[in-house]
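Exam revision sheet. Question 4 asks you to relate a sequence to its structure. Input first:
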Amino acid sequence: MFTNLSPQQTIDKLRDVYVSDNFQFDFNVSMYIAGDGNKYLRQSIIKILTGQELPASKCGMYACSDALKQNFEQLTIQFN
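Answer key, structure tokens:
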């Protein structure tokens, strides 16, 4: 669904998904970042969030989802 968005824009859209339903985030986010076609998107997202340059083979859907959740939780703590 986010095929024409940059990695940063994708993170912003996924933040909206997290805010709307953080308990089902893994399920909801899988529609957007799962699959072989999105492996470089996941790699870019992890690099933006963590600053680590990981190979695409280490940037699976759940690794990316965990990095996103951790980032979103930190933002929630900072703003509360």
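Marking note for examiners. Helices lie at 7-20, 25-33, 39-50, 61-79.
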